[in-house]
Please model this.
Amino acid sequence: MRLVLALALATAVMAGPSAHADGPQRPDKDSFYSYNGSKPLADIAPGAVLKKRATTMYFGPMATPVTGEQLLYRTTGQLGQPTVTVTTVLAPAHLPVTPDIVGYLSFYDGLDPKCDPSYTLAGGDAGGAAQQEAEEEELLINWYLSQGFVVTVPDVEGTGLDWMAGREAGYNSLDGIRATESFLEAKGAKVGLSGYSGGALAGDWASELAPTYAPELDIVGVAIGGVPVNDFHLFDYANGTSEYAAAIPAMLLGLSRAYHVDLSRYLSSYGAKVVRAESTGCMPDLFGRWPGLTVTKVLKPQYRDWKHVPALARMLRGQTMGTAPGHPSAPIYMGVGNSDGKGDGVMRASDVKALADEYCRQGVPVEFEEYQGASHTTAGAFFEPKTGPFLQERFAGVPFTGNCN
Model:
């Protein structure tokens, strides 16, 4: 299976676009993505389904026979406020009486609504490299369906496109599972989570928050790769690089949306120009666009000691993994590339290993792998083929010990 899936991923990169000319409305133009009910959103339980609609799914150039349903559901924002987002539910042809549910957490890394998986799965065009990545994910989703699993794909950034807001992504993921179980009338189903890069942000935070936020969910396994453990270290690592420096202003933008911070007061004129350009893009098409970009170029001179600017430091510090009260309860498979002795070019391998070690000390069974020689992009080809067998075994109840020892 691992060889087949690896070949499928390679095929996806070469495939033609799956977007359709008669595709869906953009989420920011589509009233389905907003709640207009009479009951205050704060009085509705997290995970409650607010709207639903059947949707034709597009995997590759042909419409698939897979059942697709989109759910608008109540969830929680980064600051604890009631919000909404959408998940796309895909069911196998023969739905088991008690289905196993895979929460597939997309690495869409979007600052514009065209990047949302609910949009691209329904035939919307993210454009460029982002569209190619969407097609890779469609193959992964299709494989999970072929194994008889229900797959739910939440828009983990919410309708505000709050990229890299950890708690919000975790809440959105957990409430997407709740909404899916409610829609399927499958409360108590076994749940597996899988995500790479931006999806790993959602997966890790979901695993940390689940014991207190959604203790009723039966999460049996979590697979996360290319994990953004510490934003301060990520900024230092990506600063001035040819490719991943573009993540710096994009993260500031996504987090400022989540924290309701007026980012413009901190930006230099050049930084404001970059942020405007990134606000209408998906990260796969932005990486490498501003080679050599540094934090100091993005910010005004008085804010260039960015680690000590209260509003900025608060946003970045709040994303540090391993800081939620308690700890994950489900087994975790965790992977990261190491292409230069430090990490995969954007995520520090030592940070990911330190997080794995911390979970091990807390009694969480963890399998940690470091993919030597692999960049952030190529490490995904090592990580993704491992996720299917890992979750299959967790659903089957196969004992898991990991490699903590």
Observations:
- The domain at 231-317 is CATH 1.10.260 (434 Repressor (Amino-terminal Domain)).
- Residues 1-17 have pLDDT under 50 and may be disordered.
- DSSP finds twelve helices and eleven strands in the chain.
- The two ends are 28 Å apart (CA to CA).
